[in-house]
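Summary for the lay section of the report: proteins are chains of building blocks that fold into shapes. Here we show the chain for Murein biosynthesis integral membrane protein MurJ and then a coded description of the shape we predicted for it.
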Amino acid sequence: MSSLGRASAILGAGTMVSRITGLVRTIVLVGVIGSNASAAADAFAIANQLPNSVFNLISVGVLTAVIVPQIVRASSQADGGNAFISKLFTLGTVVLVAATAVAMLAAPWLVSLQLNHGNPAQLALATAFAYWCLPQILFYGLYALVGETLNARRIFGPFTWAPVANNIISIVGFLVIGAVFGENLVNVSDWTPDMVAWLGGTATAGIAVQAGILLLFWRKTGLALKVDFRWRGVGLGNVGRIASWTLLMALSSMAAGFYQNWVANAASGEGAAVTVMNNAWLIFMLPYSIIVHSIGTPYFTQLSEHAHAARDADVRADISRSIRTLGFFLTGALAAVVAAAVPASRVFTNSASDAVDAAIVLLCYLVGLLPLAVLFIVQRTFYAYGDTRTPFFFTLLQCALIAVTATVAGWLAASEVLPITLLAAAVALGQSIAGTVQTIVATLLLRRRLGVLDARRWMAALGRFLVAAVPAAAAGWGVFLLLGGEDGWTTADKILGVIGSGIIAVVVVIVYVAALALLRAPELQVARGIVKRFLPGR
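The coded shape description reads as follows.
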C-alpha cells in the first residue's frame, strides 16, 4: 500500500472510531441529563457550545487565515520552520489564553444572550457550567495548532485518533456521574455544585487530554519550540485583508445561533429545545459530513486548480459534476434518514414519545440538506477565486432570515397558535428555509460572475434523485411500521434504535438505486466508480 493509501486508511479508521465513540458519548450523556423537556440538559448544551462558538471565531480570524497556512509554508524552509513556527505558536498561545480569559469574564453575559431571563435558576446553572467549560477554548486551540503542524510534517494519525480519547474519558466520566448521583437528572433543582463540577470538569478534561495526546507526538516533527515574542514577519499585517470578511461571516452565524437558542429555550423543560436541536443536528450532519467532505473535498481541490488557471469553462463543469455526484449520495441518505427519523432520534432520547418529538425537529432540518450541499460547492467556488466578500453578504442574508423566522416562531408559540412543544421544530424549519434562500441567491450571484452554470443539467439530476427518493423513503417507512412503528422494538431502547435505523436504511438504499436504474440515471455509473474506490484493495 502506498504512503498516501496508508494515510487514508489511518484517517478513515480514526474518523469512523471517533464517530462511533462520539455516538456512545452522547447516548451516555442523554441517560444522565436527558434531552427532551430537560432544563438541565439545555443549560449544559448552552454552556458546552460556548467554547466552540468562541474558538470558531478565533479559528477563522487568526488560525485559518494566518497561522495554519504559515505552518505549512514554513515547513519547507531550511530549518524546517523551527524559528518561524516558534513565533507562530507563541502568538497563537497568547491569543488563545487572552480569548479564554475574556470569555471567562464575560461568561454570564454570553450565557444570558442564549437563555431567557424568565428562568433565573436555569440561567445560574448554565453560567456555572460555562465557567467549567470555557477553558476548552485554550485546549481546542492547542489541538488545532499542534495537529496542523503534525499534518504538515505528514504525521497524520494522532490528529484523527486523539478525539477518541476525549470521547472515552467523557463516557467514563458520565457513567461515574450517573452511578454516583443518579440518572435522568432533568430538573435544574437536582444539581449541586459538586455535580456541576463533575460534568463540566469531565467535558473539559476530555478536550485537554485530546490536546495533550498530540504533544506526545511532537518529537516526531523534529522541531524544538521556544517562546518567541518577536512577531514581525508572522503576517499580522495581512490578517485584516485576508480574514475580515470570513471573520464577520463567522460572527454573524454565531449571533444567529445564539438568537435561535434564546428563542427555542422558551420550550425548555416542557418539550424539545436546545439539546434536542443539537442532537437532531448531529444526525443531520452525519451523512452530510461523511459524503460532502469525503467526496466533495477532492472536487473542490480540482475546482480550485481550474479557477487559479482562469479556466472558467472547466470550473462550470466541475460545479455541475460535483453537485450531481453529491446529490446522488445525499438524496439517498436523505430518504434513509427521513424513513428512520423516529428510531434514529430514539438513540438520543430516553423514551419513545420523546423520540417522536425529536424526530419532528430532525425532519425540519432535513428540508435543508440538499440546498446545503449545493451551497458547499457554490460557496467554495467563490473562495477558489479569492472572493470572501460575496459569501459574507449571502451568509448575512441567511442570518437575517434565521432571525426573522425564529422571531415568528417565538411569537406564534407565545400567542399559543403554535404548541410550545413544536417551537424547536419551527426554529429548525426556519433555518432550512433561510438556507434554501441563501443557496438560491448564492447561485444567482455565481451565475452573474461565471455566466451559465449548466444549472438545468444538475437541477434535472436532483429532480431525478428526488423522484427516486419518494418510493425509497416510503418503503423504509413501511418497514418501520412493519417493525411496530412508534410502539415497536426499534424505539424500545437506544441500541435497538441504531439497529432498526440500519435495517430501514438498507431497504431505502436498495429501492433508491433500483428506482434510479429504472429511470436510467447516468449518475449511477459515476457513483459506481466512486464506491469502488472506497472498497478494500482499491
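Put simply, here is one thing we learned. The radius of gyration is 23 Å.
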